[in-house]
Amino acid sequence: MRKLVVTEFVSLDGVMEEPGWTFKYWNDEIAAFKGEETSASDALLLGRVTYQGFAAAWPESKDEGAPYFNSVRKYVVSTTLDKVEWNNSVLIKNNVVDEVLRLKQQDGRDITVHGSATLVQTLMQHDLVDRYRLLVYPVVLGKGRRLFEEGTTATLKLVEARTLSAGVAALIYEPERK
Questions:
Q1: Which of the ends of the chain has fewer CB neighbours closer than 10 A, N or C?
Q2: Among 91, 154, 89, which residue's Cα sits nearest to residue 120?
Q3: For the residues of 106-120, what is the DSSP string, one character each?
Q4: Which domains does the chain have, with CATH numbers?
Q5: What ranges make up the beta strands (E) of 58-149?
């Protein structure tokens, strides 16, 4: 069974929205942490907003991650899109929970979710997330969409913690399931 991995850039106060504030911290350590995710994953699960941002940026990118993002299978959850044109993308319009369960039961490596705040909330509500890979940045934003919104409850087990340069913490959590 495949694992569903949520990966996020998060401020100290939990904001994950519009992570442009993370760019000044980017370095080889963070790139290596993110590279571990791509090495372990053969599919992405993305919400519409993240998909559209990625589809606008990656096809023309010269970044070392571009070949992966442009070729990997992308499952896009959206009730408003009628088609997805970026290479190797598949649209999921209905029965998101059932479709994600089906994807998890297939053979393969991890399915990674980047950003996609609304989708992540749905996945958490239905206990579909198997791992959280968080880069926590030393900044407090005070407002914005949070990873764990008000009313979210979860018991997580810390699997790994690394302190990266510039004060960024790389944290890996897994849900404690009964």
A1: C
A2: 154
A3: SSSSEEEEES-HHHH
A4: 4-175 (3.40.430.10)
A5: 73-77, 89-92, 110-114, 131-137
- Cα 100 to Cα 78: distance, rounded to the nearest angstrom: 13
* pTM exceeds 0.70 for this model: yes
List the structure tokens of 96.
Answer: 């998101």
The single residue listed with the structure tokens 């690394």 is 162
Residues 6+ apart with CB under 8 A from 148: 14, 124, 154
- pLDDT (average), residues 89-118: 97
Residues 156/175, Cβ–Cβ less than 8 Å: yes
At residue 138, the 3 state secondary structure works out as coil
Provide the pairing of β-strand 41-47 with 4-11: unpaired
Tokens of 176: 């404690």
User: Buried (b) or exposed (e) across 26-40, using 16+ Cβ within 10 A?
Assistant: eeebbeebbeebbee
